[in-house]
Every structure is written in structure tokens, then in C-alpha cells.
Specification:
Blueprint (H helix, E strand, L loop, with lengths): L2 E6 L2 H13 L4 E5 L14 E5 L13 H14 L3 E3 L2 H7 L2 H10 L7 E4 L2 H8 L7 E5 L9 E3 L2 H8 L2 H6 L6 E5 L7 E8 L2 E9 L10 H10 L6 E5 L4 H13 L4 E8 L5 E7 L6 H6 L6 H26 L1
Length: 322
């Protein structure tokens, strides 16, 4: 019997999705891919498979979860299974370099970026941004972890020599040095997409932080770890329809069906897109305050259920053809 399968490595992030499934009376099966094996010569079960693997899995002790998920997704596609956010989506999830290349190819502007491996190479690349401030970030991070703002290459050199930098070093060894976009507004905007279509957008008041995870569990962790001002999420309608259309075309071209895409606007009104998150979460408080008729997780549950029903309806035709 066909069913919905959710592939992930972090049970805490799945709780709101389970609630959305329960609201619809839908049963799902989780595949926890923090470790395991793949029987490549054995067909997978029938069903719809939703990939929610995260780039930040290594911060929870699941260093090779994306690599295992990559094998699973290729196994599923080999056997023709319906996969939401397949191998290409995972490739983008774990590499900002890949994101920027794909965004630029789609005609979507990203911040000026240089890539470096090795501390000396990072410092040399940073000198190309002086005297302007710049951002140093991991190629594979997640939740904004390890993202730092520096005024000079010497400041970056001091950081790279510290134990803190060792703890925050990119898991793949690749650092990105990037223009710091000065925005007159104290927020960034995140556009949410389900089934490849725009669902809603939120303005995220940064509070001076780069760690902008919208999930409720992230807010709990932040309060326990810091006394910094809380990051605020507010649903907004003020997003250019042309930008939304460009994002939808980008997602379609890259076989991504569920995602959150973040952008910032500079003092001249120029929009820069800097992050694509294919393991998207939602802020329940912002959704309640905006009276969202269908929350992000509910939209995903509906989408997956519709896909399962469509697949089930086609199965007699497939059997007859075989």
C-alpha cells in the first residue's frame, strides 16, 4: 500500500508537520537518516517521499546524514518513485556556492562572493573587499551558523586563528567571503513556496543576528543560550510579483518544490538573494497573528496528500501497462 514517507535527521523539526498530517487524518512513515544503509538492488516501497534533510545536520552530530540521504534519493529516483525535493534540491541545500550559481543562472542577483579554502586564501580573498565590511560564512552551514561580519581582513585573520573559528569552520572546508549588504530596513524577507508556488512571505527582524531559523524549537534554543533581543517574524504582502515569478521559475528549473528563499534590499532598492533553504520551517506565532488560513506545514501536508492520491489513482493504469 502506498503511503507518505518523510526523510529527515531531526525529529524536533518534524513535530509541527505531524500535527498538520494528524489534522487531515493522514498517516506517514518517518525515515530517520542519521545513519543506516541502502539496499540498492531492492526496489523501495511505493509511495511519495518528502526529503527534509538539513545542511545543519552536522551540528546535531549527524555528520554524514546528507551523504546517506543522497544515496537514498538516488535509489528512489532509480526506481521511479515520486520524490519531493530530490537529489538536486539536496545538492543546493548543502552548498551555497551551488545556490548562487543556480540563482545567477536564473537571472536572480546574489551578493558579490568569493570562495576560499585555507585560512591564508580566505585572508587574501577578503583583501579584495576592503575597505568595505564583508561577511565570512560557511558554504555548508544552516540556520546562519558561523556567519560573521568583519570590518577588515586583519579582523578576519584574528578570528580564523581562534578556537571559535575551529568550532565554526565549514564542514566541507569551503569559506565564502561576501559583500555586506547595507539595508536601511532592520529586516530581511523570506518567501515560502509549497508545490513550487508562492505561499506567503515573512519579514524577519534580525536583531543583529545572522541565525534566523523560524522554527519554534530554534527560538527556544536561542532564549536558553542568549539574552539577545528576540528575532521577530511578521507575515507581509509587500513582495514584488516579478521577484516571486522569478523565484518560482528558479525552483522549477532546479526540481525544488518546497523551499524558503531569503533576500535583502540595499539602500538603492536593489534586491540581493542570499539563501535557499529546501528544509524549510515556519514560525507558528507569525502565522497565527496573520490569520493564515493554511499554515506552511498544513500546505505541505495537503500537497503531499494530493500527490499520494494522484499516484494511487494512476496505479491501475501503471499495472495495466506493465
Amino acid at each position: 500500500m502506498s503511503k507518505i514517507y518523510v526523510l529527515h535527521e531531526n525529529p524536533e523539526w518534524i513535530t509541527p508537520l505531524h500535527a498538520a498530517f494528524a489534522k487531515r487524518g493522514i498517516e506517514v512513515e518517518e525515515w530517520l537518516l542519521d545513519e543506516g544503509s541502502v539496499a540498492f538492488d531492492t526496489p523501495p516501497p511505493e509511495g511519495v517521499f518528502y526529503n527534509r534533510m538539513s545542511a545543519s545536520s552536522h551540528t546535531r552530530g549527524h555528520r554524514f546524514a546528507p551523504e546517506l540521504t543522497h544515496a537514498v534519493l538516488n535509489w528512489l529516483t532509480l526506481h521511479g518513485r515520486r520524490v519531493i525535493n530530490g537529489p538536486r534540491a539536496l545538492y543546493l541545500e548543502v552548498s551555497k556556492v551551488a545556490q548562487y550559481a543556480a540563482l545567477e543562472q536564473a537571472g536572480i542577483k546574489t551578493p558579490r562572493t568569493q570562495v576560499a579554502v585555507g585560512h591564508q586564501s580566505v585572508i587574501e580573498a577578503a583583501s579584495n573587499f576592503a575597505p568595505s565590511p564583508f561577511i565570512l560564512k560557511p558554504n555548508r552551514g544552516g540556520k546562519g551558523l558561523g556567519v560573521r561580519l568583519f570590518a577588515t581582513p586583519d579582523e578576519a585573520a584574528g578570528y580564523l586563528a581562534s578556537e571559535e573559528a575551529t568550532d565554526e569552520a565549514p564542514i566541507d572546508g569551503i569559506w565564502l567571503i561576501q559583500d555586506y549588504i547595507r539595508s536601511p530596513e532592520p529586516f530581511i524577507t523570506r518567501c515560502e513556496f509549497v508545490a513550487g508556488r508562492f505561499h506567503y512571505a515573512v519579514q524577519v527582524e534580525t536583531g543583529g543576528s545572522f541565525e534566523l531559523c523560524p522554527a519554534d524549537v530554534c527560538a527556544i534554543d536561542d532564549k536558553a543560550a542568549s539574552s539577545a533581543p528576540a528575532i521577530k517574524f511578521t507575515v507581509t504582502n509587500s513582495v514584488d510579483p516579478a521577484l516571486i515569478a522569478a523565484y518560482e521559475n528558479f525552483l522549477k528549473a532546479n526540481d525544488v518544490e518546497v523551499a524558503g528563499i531569503e533576500f535583502i534590499r540595499d539602500a538603492n532598492g536593489q534586491v540581493f538573494t542570499y539563501d535557499v533553504n529546501t528544509n524549510t520551517n515556519y514560525n507558528a506565532d507569525a502565522e497565527r497573528k496573520a490569520n493564515i488560513s493554511e499554515t506552511g506545514m498544513e500546505a505541505i501536508a495537503r500537497f503531499l496528500h494530493d500527490e499520494l492520491q494522484s499516484q494511487t489513482a494512476r496505479q491501475p493504469e501503471i499495472i495495466a501497462a506493465e
